[in-house]
Structure formats: structure tokens, C-alpha cells
Write a structure and sequence with these properties.
Number of helices: 11
Strand content: 25-35%
Distance between the termini: 31 Å
Order of helices and strands: EHHEEEHEHEEEHEHEEEHEHEEHEEEEHH
Length: 382
């Protein structure tokens, strides 16, 4: 008989083994320290068959800075089902339990990196940004003189500098995570053996690059700084004669690399691909905090949301200057825009073009002007 419950510390051995079955490039011994740190800061749920853990999901609480609005967000990760219990709708059961838990806890948003967009769309998620994958031939890297000092550091020496530079990043309020020290340790130290370059100007750190060097390839994991700082880092990499390939992934709005590679050769490639998905767990709370850009008077109707049924209803929105009033009603005299849960996430995250909605053109144009238009910047992965 199958049932769902929240996992406890004494479930961790079975949980880790199941994760390594679902993500076979991991092993329990290699992953244990990283898994324990994540589990200590997360809520895990499992679907059982008797005493056997058949499926599990980890939900980790984070905060994102959405245009100076701090939203609570649950990052969903390590979704895994044992091969012996596939096709039994266990993930459906787990998602229902997790969303109810998150709603009661006051969590507003949820993000995940999907293995299938179609699969997670039925849970109310929608893609909210794209990613750019760079494969760069070193000959296309810039040769640029500069007066910066570039120091190489390990994690222990670099961690405080990274934390400060990330917090002061000009893009940090456009959808990026508010990073806690435990997450930075998980991300930069326990995941892979990254090295770090720090850029100094008159002894003041102004940028960093986290990277992984393996044989003849450099994989840039994260970069913070302006275009000149990035050029200085890339010029440093260009000096390493043994490097034959450089890879990097970012969201399109972090486009300094695109500008630098404007005249790249055919040996370097830039590929656009879908990024992460988001859903709004609590639409009413989301709207009450939302940073509307312009005056707006409209109603949003959600007729069904099977996994978050508390979202069903009509939301009257009246925004004037810095004042927003949200009222959930049964009927309204305001112009109504009908949406489902994935579309709600899509448009309020700034993806308002090419939306197939049955709404008057004038109403839709006013709505588009009032919501955030820039897709968010995001630089984390659960």
C-alpha cells in the first residue's frame, strides 16, 4: 500500500541511495557530505510502499529578489523514483503534499530545473527564462591589456569575497537568489572542486570567476563583474597554452560574453535553450507583493489549479503609484483576463509576448505595461 509522508533524519540512508539510483553519476560515499548539508536545510517528502521508500523529492527554502520584492521560494530537486515503482503516479502524490505543505508554511513561489517541460507543466510550472550555452575556441578570447591584479584562490580564501561581490551585483535585484553561507558552501565547495580568480583594482576586489579546469578544458561556472573584468579573466585564460575549449552557461540578460564574442569564428558556438521553470504556490500573496510598474485596474481569473486549489478564484487588482490592492472575489465588474497556473507564472515573470489569451487588446496592452517586462536573471541550480 502506498502512502506519502515527510522524511526524517533516519530516512536519509534510503533517501541518498534512491537519489543515486535516479542520478547514477552520483555515489552515496561521494555525495554524502553534500546531501547531508542540503537535507539539513530542506524539507523532504517520500512515497512509500510499505516500509520501502519508492519515490522522493527535496524542497529547499530560498529567497529571491524579484525587482526589490523578496519572495519566499522553494527549490524542487532530486525528484527520483525507484525503477521498481515507476508509472504509479507517485510524483503526483508527492507534489500535492509538497504544495499543501508550502502553502501552509507561507511559501509563495517554487522553481525547478525540469527533465521534461511537458511533465512539470501539468503541476502548474512554466518556463520563465532561457539559457545560453557557450562553447568557445580559445583563439576567440580577447587579448586586452589592463591594470587589474588577478589572484587565484581556493574556496576558503575566496568565500567572503564572493559573498560580498555577489550581494553588491547590480543585477542581484532582478530575480537572483539571496544566498546564505550554507548554500554558497554547497554550490561552490561541495559540488565540484572549483578554483577561483579574483580581480582587484587598487587592492579592492571588483569581480570573481569560479571555474573548473580539467585536462584541456575550462568550464566557467560563475562570473560576477563588469565587461572589462570579464575580458581580463578571459585574457588570463588565453595565456594557458594547454586549453583547447572554454564552456560557459548564463541567462541571456547576462550578455557580456555575447558582446565580447560578437566577431567569433565558426569554431565557437552559442546555443539558446530553455531554462528553469517556476510556479506560483500562493497567487494572492504573490500579487499583494508584486512590483507593478504602472497604474492598473484589472481582474485575473483562475478557474482551475488542481495541485494548488486554493488559487482558484477571481483576483481584482488595483494598483496606483506605490499602492496595490488585491481582493479575491466571486464576481467582478472589472475587465477579466482568464489564465491557468502556467500562464500566470509566465506573464508575471515578464514573458508577455506571444501569449494566446482571450482578452480585449486594450486591456492586454495596459496589463503588459504594468508588469515586469524583463525576464529574470538567475544563476543557481538545485
Amino acid at each position: 500500500m502506498k502512502y506519502v509522508r515527510q522524511l526524517k533524519e533516519n530516512d536519509r540512508k534510503a533517501q541518498l541511495e534512491l537519489i543515486c539510483e535516479g542520478f547514477p553519476w552520483n555515489t552515496p560515499s561521494a555525495m554524502k557530505e553534500r546531501f547531508d548539508l542540503l537535507a539539513d536545510h530542506s524539507d523532504s517528502f517520500g512515497s512509500f510502499e510499505g516500509d520501502v521508500l519508492a519515490s522522493q523529492i527535496i524542497s529547499t527554502p530560498y529567497t529571491i529578489n524579484f525587482y526589490n520584492t523578496k519572495y519566499s521560494m522553494a527549490g524542487i530537486g532530486f525528484v527520483a523514483t525507484s525503477q521498481h515503482y515507476q508509472h504509479q503516479h507517485r510524483i503526483d502524490d508527492l507534489m500535492s503534499s509538497i504544495f499543501e505543505f508550502l502553502y501552509r508554511k507561507g511559501c509563495v513561489l517554487s522553481f525547478l530545473a525540469p527533465f521534461s517541460y511537458r511533465f512539470y507543466r501539468r503541476f502548474g510550472y512554466e518556463k520563465v527564462f532561457d539559457m545560453l550555452d557557450f562553447t568557445i575556441d580559445p583563439s576567440d578570447l580577447p587579448i586586452k591589456d589592463h591594470s587589474y591584479r588577478i589572484d587565484s584562490m581556493d574556496w576558503q580564501h575566496a568565500k567572503d569575497i564572493l559573498h560580498k561581490l555577489y550581494e553588491n551585483n547590480a543585477m542581484c535585484n532582478q530575480g537572483m537568489m539571496v544566498r546564505e553561507p550554507w548554500w554558497e558552501k554547497y554550490k561552490f565547495f561541495l559540488r565540484k572542486p572549483y578554483d577561483f580568480m579574483i580581480c582587484f583594482q587598487k587592492d579592492e576586489p571588483i569581480g570573481y570567476m569560479a571555474y573548473l579546469k580539467k585536462d584541456t578544458e575550462i568550464s566557467i561556472f560563475e562570473f560576477v563583474g563588469n565587461k572589462d573584468v570579464l575580458c581580463a579573466f578571459l585574457a588570463e585564460i588565453k595565456k594557458w597554452d594547454e586549453i583547447e575549449k572554454v564552456t560557459y552557461t548564463s541567462t541571456p540578460r547576462l550578455n557580456e560574453m555575447c558582446e565580447i564574442l560578437e566577431d567569433k569564428s565558426v569554431r565557437s558556438q552559442i546555443v539558446l535553450r530553455p531554462g528553469m521553470m517556476a510556479r506560483v504556490v500562493d497567487m494572492e500573496a504573490f500579487l499583494k507583493q508584486y512590483p507593478f510598474m504602472r497604474k492598473l485596474k484589472v481582474a485575473i481569473e483562475i478557474r482551475e489549479d488542481p495541485y494548488c486549489p486554493w488559487n482558484v478564484g477571481i483576483y481584482e487588482i488595483e494598483h496606483k503609484k506605490d499602492s496595490t490592492k488585491i481582493k479575491k472575489v466571486f464576481e467582478t465588474n472589472m475587465p477579466v483576463i482568464l489564465m491557468d497556473a502556467p500562464m500566470f507564472a509566465k506573464v508575471f515573470f515578464g514573458n508577455v509576448d506571444h501569449c494566446d489569451l482571450d482578452v480585449e487588446k486594450e486591456v492586454w496592452e495596459k496589463f503588459k505595461q504594468a508588469v515586469v517586462r524583463n525576464p529574470i536573471v538567475f544563476a543557481d541550480y538545485f
